[in-house]
Amino acid sequence: MIQRVRAALGTFVSIEAAATAETGELAAINGAFAAIEKVGALLHPTSGSDLRRLRSARIGEPVDVDSWTHEILRTCRELHAESGGIFDPCLPAWPGRMRDIEIEEGRARIAKRADVALDLGGIAKGFAVDRAIEALRSLGCGSGLVNAGGDVRAFGPPPREILLRLPFGRAYALRLGDEAVAVSEPKSERSPAEHRGFYRGDTGEPVAGRWVAVTAPTATLADALSKCALLCPPEAASALLARHGARAMFDVEVP
Questions:
Q1: How far apart are CA 140 and CA 27, in angstroms?
Q2: Do 218 and 126 touch, CB atoms closer than 8 A?
Q3: Fewest CB within a 10 Å sphere: which of 11, 46, 99, 105?
């Protein structure tokens, strides 16, 4: 198994891969990084090509997008509905909400019913991790791990032990099998500059929240559901996590 680290998505991304030959591992890792770079090029909140085109399009104007953009927006719409509108990647300063984005079925085309600006920072890193995992598998890797600034997914044997960083300099060791984990916590002095803080999608109200880690079958779900666990009322969050085979760990529950 070999490992490579690069800067991407506003953070450092680490990719590990094991294949039958070292040359195969290097090719697979390069393919995984290419997938991550594509996600950034499509979905960055200000420079992403598809999000910029949607933001500048006229209301009702169809916008053809990449199939990956179509996929992540469908997931956002589903989680928006399941969370009662609390999960919403639309910036509150703009009038449009996730329900105002029309997503065609069977075709990578979207339109908007109101002026809207998307910031997919609550789900895009996890989505990029999943696309990188797909690349590793398709290029012959039997096991691997992708870590994009704390959004982590592993596959294949053996299970991995990773350290989750808690507040106040503490850490928690988590054993990760064929699954993903993502952490969300309130904005702090160590948060990336682009981190705007958290807010409820239905009201735009800022939310302080607390440290939470979510394990889920995919990094996309782990990333998004960590925001739902932080923002939703406890009963609603529990139901949403259970629906997607996910589990949340809060700071007060971690040894």
A1: 10
A2: yes
A3: 105
183-240 pLDDT per residue, tens: 987 655 444 454 455 655 566 666 666 789 999 999 999 999 999 998 888 999 999 9
Hey, where are the domains in the chain? 44-121
3-state SS class at 153: strand
Is 44-121 a CATH 1.10.260 domain? no
Q: What is the pTM of this model?
A: 0.90
Closest CA to 222 of 180, 175, 166: 180
CB under 8 Å to 16, separation ≥6 — which residues?
A: 1, 2, 3, 144, 145, 146
CA distance 62 to 166: 44
DSSP state of 90: B
| Angle, helix 234-243 to helix 67-82, in steps of 10 degrees | 140
Dihedrals φ, ψ of 160, to 5°? -110, 145
